[in-house]
Write a structure and sequence with these properties.
Layout lengths: L4 E3 L8 H4 L21 H5 L12 E6 L10 E2 L6 E2 L1 H12 L3 E6 L5 H7 L4 E3 L12 E8 L1 E7 L17 E3 L5 H15 L6 E5 L2 H10 L4 E5 H11 L2 E8 L7 E7 L5 H14 L1 H8 L20
Helix pairs in contact: 3-8, 3-9
Length: 307
């Protein structure tokens, strides 16, 4: 039987000194300086006539913060300014649309209702396009999605690449994510074959995840590969043992997420494609060590997990 374990962190937030540390090749201090792009007339023209933004003239975007950690979201040295790759992408979208940007750091559980209710104009939260999500949201892609299994450097585990490899293991995963869906699908397949059940471990933040892995309370973490790679380079305490496409068994993409049918997705896609064309997009990915997941063009509602 599958069971879950909730592990709480020693502290609710990472300390400022820990939060601003950078993996090799990532200059957190330099990355506090925003990357901007120019307004794109074609993108602006695609904003539906009379569209009501949460705040007039402003794009209000839900983003992650310390729960995801760098490169996705963290505080700058002033301990209040949100920086990270997701906020950088949000700025490019807003700039291209000729709008101001308002970032709202929120929990993973909050963004779906926040977008559908109109609390946020968009969510940029490392959200993978899935078949189920496309029934409620529109998507404009901005990055490929790959997931990585990471273990303690001294772990005896050498490979996790398919369903049998997770049998009986305690694996840290975020609830309600596509990586959880992959693990549960694999576990169902294993149990049908009589293999030991997976033991999902749900944690509250990056500090709790680190504690669980290093103390042996969990065997591995499974989540966005760029995040795992960043932490591995930063600390040297974890290592990669397997990569899985985010849309397993198919490829998948990360996307700006918008309310279904409100018409804004066309403008957002055009803004992203403008940033891709002028190089500001790749500048953002490069400075957060995410360029391995770059795309050549944004797509609207492409095939995703479950299609």
């Amino acid at each position: 039987m599958i069971y879950s374990r909730k592990i709480t962190a020693v502290a609710a937030l990472l300390s400022l000194s820990a939060a601003v540390q950078a993996a090799p090749g990532v200059d957190i201090v330099a990355n506090e300086t925003p990357v901007h792009t120019v307004p794109n007339p074609q993108a602006i023209a695609k904003i539906p006539a009379g569209f009501k933004f949460v705040e007039p003239g402003t794009l209000t975007v839900a983003v992650s913060l310390l729960g995801s950690g760098p490169p996705f979201g963290l505080y700058a040295r002033d301990n209040k300014t949100v920086i990270g790759s997701e906020s950088d992408i949000a700025r490019l979208v807003a700039d291209g649309l000729g709008l101001k940007l308002k970032l709202v750091a929120t929990s993973w559980e909050d963004w779906p209702l926040g977008v559908t209710s109109g609390k946020y104009d968009a969510a940029i939260y490392n959200i993978t396009v899935t078949n189920e999500r496309k029934t409620k949201f529109d998507f404009a892609t901005y990055r490929q999605d790959t997931l990585g299994f990471y273990v303690k450097t001294t772990s005896k585990i050498t490979e996790i690449k398919s369903a049998p490899d997770i049998a009986g293991k305690k694996i840290i995963v975020d609830s309600g994510t596509n990586q959880e869906a992959v693990l549960l699908a694999w576990d169902k397949e294993n149990q049908a074959k009589g293999l030991p059940a997976l033991q999902p471990v749900y944690v509250t933040d990056k500090a709790a995840s680190t504690l669980a892995i290093q103390s042996g309370r969990a065997d591995a973490t499974f989540g966005p590969n760029v995040s795992g790679a960043y932490q591995a380079k930063l600390t040297g305490k974890t290592r990669l043992v397997g990569i899985v496409p985010g849309g397993w068994p198919k490829t998948a993409n990360i996307a700006v997420t918008l309310k279904k049918g409100n018409g804004l997705v066309d403008a957002v896609q055009a803004s992203l494609n403008s940033a891709i064309a002028n190089g500001s997009y790749l500048k953002v990915l490069d400075r957060w060590a995410e360029s391995d997941e770059k795309i050549d063009r944004s797509e609207i509602n492409p095939p995703g997990l479950g299609d």
